[in-house]
Design a protein that fits this description.
23 helices, 3-stranded mixed beta sheet, homodimer
């Protein structure tokens, strides 16, 4: 990376004098576009607004288009109205809809009103599909090629209209009722005999329905290494195209969401450093409260064993070790299964296969740790304490791995996000259950 | 999804009689290719081997190519040698190298020996770059277009050679020393005046060096929505092309690795259900042992406060609640920053900005939880206990968020994977530190 972005970032931290503004403007002209994007991603909205005014119109548009929708929405207040309208007008319909989802309803209405009728209509198509569906993320601007056209005709149309269309490399082919009948790559079209009909050269299309879930469709598109996938309505008519870059964006958002929820908070949906502090707090506080309140259950469990604890204070020493190990074992299983569910490797119907696998894995891990724990605790404390620790580890590891493995599947089955039921909830749950197991085993072995 | 894959999966669970084999073969022919891939991904290698023998040659190759390299390596033993050689011969050089990385050295040598010289040479180019570099994942088979060619000439070359080349939509352009001077999309080439020179229509190329890190380059390519990025050597000569589908694969592997390590285990690198149980155990046991051994530190901390505990057993009741909350707060910060580092939103030099943000966030969260904790514990136990809990929550949340925020950055600075130092280690670390804070505050307030 060149020096420009670093110098720019330093200068932009303070308020700009008119003199510095021209210096920044000059620096900006010589900074690579990807570095300018990075710079904006790392700035609070107010500062970024200043920077936008110093960029050329073209570059400003490119930068704006590269930002997350949530970030774009934050920026709107810091930009000149006419700039916002221009960006909005130039955006692809699917990106436009993502932005509309993030702004207040009255702003959305106002923005939509400024569009030309044809653009508003095409945006309306995308807006008509539910959030999280393929239709909401597809490009509705497509070139319609009929199967009874010749290759030569299709190439001529492409040459004329190539610049208006988002992607020309994947070409869906339809019959006269506009129903999808096949697909053809620009490469195949280009190298085919111009007199052939499209129906002769087209291949079977892997397509999606507009109402399908966006995430799983996007993962399929990327697994199959396709550049784009045709999207049809329920009757098989072609309505759009989901492109690989939109697919990647969908997958990245889903992975960021999973990473966040696995860590016990909501995703920020915009770059960390440009997120206002209050939003960071808001993304965490609800989770933290819910988890802390569930942890009160552990206080109650321990409260009910207070006499046992008072008789053998030594038992208290192992509480964090045991709950920690149970939590770790549960997390391991939960993250594995959550990721496998996200990637489509595991389905809801696999719940018993997963349970059986995780029980065995947990038992094996527990036996290993338990043997070690027995040895160490016997040496330092007593054989009886060693036995308590050993047996507890076997039991809690088996329990935690099993619960950790099936919780994400259960979450999915009841329509919740598996990541929500993964790490932090497993920890809290296995803390309480683990403590009960611990004190039951202790009471039995120590006879108290 | 049709019924075929489900019926197939049921039939394949048992050993096949010759009669069933022909039935499966028929079912397979009518199953969509993506469903066959899913099926193989969910099967142990031995079973999948049987299935491969029932697929047509073409479909078998497509399925094999769609699998992870680790999974392919597992399958090699279950397939006929001649099939393996045929798949290996047909693979793209970069995928071939990924597979070679996963098989034992003697198998790799044997496989390489079977290749034709030209194929072996081109595979050798990719093999020459270090693991984790762009060079290791690029396509070395590229079309070389010189800037002094005309558009018409370039189109003619493309028409002739389109079928041999992995991607023809992104066209890097070089000078007579083969140094990259620009880039042109097939779309622009196709719509340009045939008499122009490529130097007139080419755009500035965003390129990568072969020795650059694969993950960050791949993320850039996908952020910029490019189909491919030219790759050059240190002197600027064109050596290959990194395509969007390889970029996506790189990013997905990295995200899976982060998800696994954030959950305290190593990634399986192949679908969960097809992974042998022993491999699942191996991916977790080292982490679990290391974490359990670090947790012994918490036993020591509590041991040193045993007198305090014996005097006020009530303190033991809150141990899981406090360590759990500290762990959750730390995890929240750690996962946010780990993801931001992976996406490039946060850099090493931001360590103090992150620390300052997280200290404030942690303090705010701690104050909120602390007030609540004070209220509840005062009601149920005593005001003194309430004060201990309240102050401890403020202190541990501030501490845990700060540590959680900077640990991933420190990990990155010392060249470790930030995800390794995220969730589970933060939990163990904040457990021990939190306990010390807790008992110090308790001793001060309760005067014991």
């Amino acid at each position: 990376m060149s020096e420009n972005p670093i110098e720019l970032e330093r200068v932009l931290r303070t308020d700009l004098s008119p003199d510095e503004a021209s210096r920044v403007s000059e620096l900006l002209t010589n900074t690579r576009i990807q570095d300018v994007i990075r710079l904006v991603e790392r700035m609070p909205a107010a500062k970024a607004g200043v920077l936008f005014r110093l960029l050329s119109q073209d570059r400003a548009l490119t930068v704006f288009e590269a930002l997350d929708a949530r970030h774009q929405a934050d920026l709107i207040g810091a930009l000149h109205d006419e700039d916002v309208l221009r960006y909005f007008d130039e955006m692809d319909p699917d990106d436009r809809v993502s932005l509309l989802d993030e702004v207040p309803a009255e702003v959305a209405d106002e923005l939509l009103r400024t569009l030309e009728k044809s653009e508003r209509d095409i945006t309306g198509i995308v807006l008509g599909y539910p959030r999280g569906s393929v239709g909401r993320r597809m490009s509705p601007e497509i070139l319609v090629l009929y199967q009874d056209m010749t290759v030569g005709d299709a190439l001529a149309i492409l040459k004329r209209r190539a610049s208006e269309i988002e992607t020309i490399y994947t070409l869906p082919i339809v019959n006269r009722e506009r129903k999808l009948t096949g697909i053809c790559s620009f490469r195949d079209l280009y190298t085919a005999d111009p007199h052939q009909h499209l129906s002769d050269i087209m291949a079977e299309a892997v397509s999606a329905r507009a109402n399908d879930a966006a995430e799983s469709t996007a993962r399929w598109l990327l697994t199959l290494d396709h550049l784009a996938m045709p999207v049809t309505d329920e009757t098989g008519r072609l309505v759009g195209l989901l492109t690989f870059d939109d697919a990647h964006e969908i997958v990245e958002e889903a992975d960021t969401e999973d990473a966040a929820r696995g860590g016990g908070h909501e995703p920020l949906q915009q770059p960390y450093l440009s997120t206002p502090l209050a939003k960071v707090v808001r993304s965490r506080i609800v989770w933290l409260l819910v988890l802390a309140l569930s942890a009160i259950f552990t206080v109650q469990v321990l409260d009910s064993f207070e006499d046992t604890l008072a008789t053998a204070v030594v038992l208290a020493l192992f509480i964090p070790l045991l709950t920690g190990t149970a939590g770790n074992t549960g997390n391991q299983a939960a993250t594995t299964v959550t990721r496998a569910l996200a990637l489509g490797d595991v389905r809801k119907s696999d719940v018993f296969r997963v349970l059986w696998r995780e029980m065995r894995v947990g038992f094996f891990l527990g036996t290993l740790l338990g043997t070690l724990g027995f040895g160490l605790a016997s040496l330092v404390y007593s054989t009886q304490v060693g036995m308590v620790i050993g047996f507890t580890l076997v039991a809690v590891c088996t329990m935690a791995a099993s619960i950790g493995g099936i919780m994400p599947i259960i979450a999915k089955a009841i329509g919740a996000d598996p990541a929500v039921f993964s790490n932090p909830f497993i920890s809290t749950f296995s803390d309480a259950t683990g403590l009960i197991i611990y004190f039951m085993i202790a009471k039995a072995i120590l006879g108290i």
